[in-house]
Amino acid sequence: MSKAIVLFSGGLDSTTCLSVAFKEGYEVYPLSFDYGQRHKKELECVKQITKYYKIKSNKIIRIDNVGGSALTDSSIEVPDYQGLPQIPVTYVPARNIIFLSYAAGYAEAIEADAIYIGVNAVDYSGYPDCRPEFIEAFEKMIKVGTKRGVNGKPIKIETPLINLSKAEIIKLACENNAPLHLTTSCYKGEEKACGVCDSCVLRLKGFKEAGIIDPIEYLRKE
Question: How far apart are CA 57 and CA 45, in angstroms?
Fold first, then answer.
């Protein structure tokens, strides 16, 4: 059975991505990060979801907080949703570059053929490292910068959600019986989702458009 690394945050998109990798027949190796994020609740969700899937090989890697983001610097407030600017303060500098670099090394080490990442370029917060051109560039880089790549067995970066709306992602997750009740999307990291940050608003909008009830609890719903 072919192996795949899945970059896994415990959120809606990465959990859907995990379900897709399973459905496509891979032996799945989730890879998660503790990078000083204020929403550490997602790491508890990671543990619950990997337990749900009976995954024994999940890695949680701790890396230094790079700062420069409302998600990693407590002095920068997570804003309520006010329409999405081009690049919001919740952007974490070079996050997906860092995560994919770890994933590429892990993939080479265990001879995995693919890396799954739940980036989305439709209903998203405007992050530059979620766009197709970034994924294409990174895939080219690991093709020329890894032993597998230069030996003609390049690692494929799979982005099954990149062109889907949030409603389509939710429908896909439900089709795959993904445990969305165990996920979190909130940037503020409280016990209940705030319901008003960018991530919560996009999630709630997606569930409404999909005609499906969101199974997690919120403090507010706009």
Answer: 16
The reported pLDDT for the residue numbered 79 is 72
Domain covering 3-210: architecture: 3-Layer(aba) Sandwich (3.40)
Query: How is the chain split into domains, by residue range?
Result: 3-210
Total-model pTM: 0.92
Alpha-carbon distance 198 to 125, whole Å?
7
| Helical pair 198-210 and 166-175, crossing angle rounded to 10 deg | 60
Per-residue model confidence as pLDDT tens digits over 117-145: 999 988 666 788 989 999 999 999 999 99
